[in-house]
Write a structure and sequence with these properties.
CATH superfamily: Gcn5-related N-acetyltransferase (GNAT)
Number of domains: 1
CATH class: Alpha Beta
Low-confidence stretches: none
Structural class: alpha+beta
Number of strands: 5
Mean pLDDT: 83
Largest sheet: 5 strands, antiparallel
Order of helices and strands: EEHHHEEE
Strand content: 25-35%
């Protein structure tokens, strides 16, 4: 595994003025990614994973298996508890690779 690319971290200001911290995922993020997946609506999980059923633990484990070169993932964190609110992964195996992206919604 390559070293953690800290230079890829950034704070992003959203339209509503709130800030999220976007950074490369780390193996220790697995519990936060698992909680994020469990909070997604059924429809969002279907659109993200193309399946009505999902092994949450396996999906979270795969999400944090990165080498920062061929397999790269980002997580966005929000709030004082730094709760995961976005998950994006890319696997570079061809000149063009799809970018699966999931974004959660915070209920008022």
């Amino acid at each position: 595994m390559s070293h953690y690319p800290a230079d890829r971290e950034a704070d992003v200001v959203l339209r509503d003025g709130s800030t999220i911290h976007v950074r490369p995922v780390r193996p220790e993020d697995e519990p936060a990614v698992l909680a994020f997946y469990r909070e997604l609506s059924e429809e969002t999980r279907y659109l993200r994973f193309f399946s009505g059923t999902l092994d949450f633990a396996e999906a979270a484990r795969r999400a944090v298996e990165v080498d920062y070169q061929r397999r790269f993932a980002l997580v966005a964190e929000a709030g004082p508890e730094r709760r995961a609110v976005v998950d994006a992964r890319v696997r570079v195996e061809a000149p063009v690779a799809p970018l699966p992206l999931s974004a959660g919604r915070r209920e008022p």
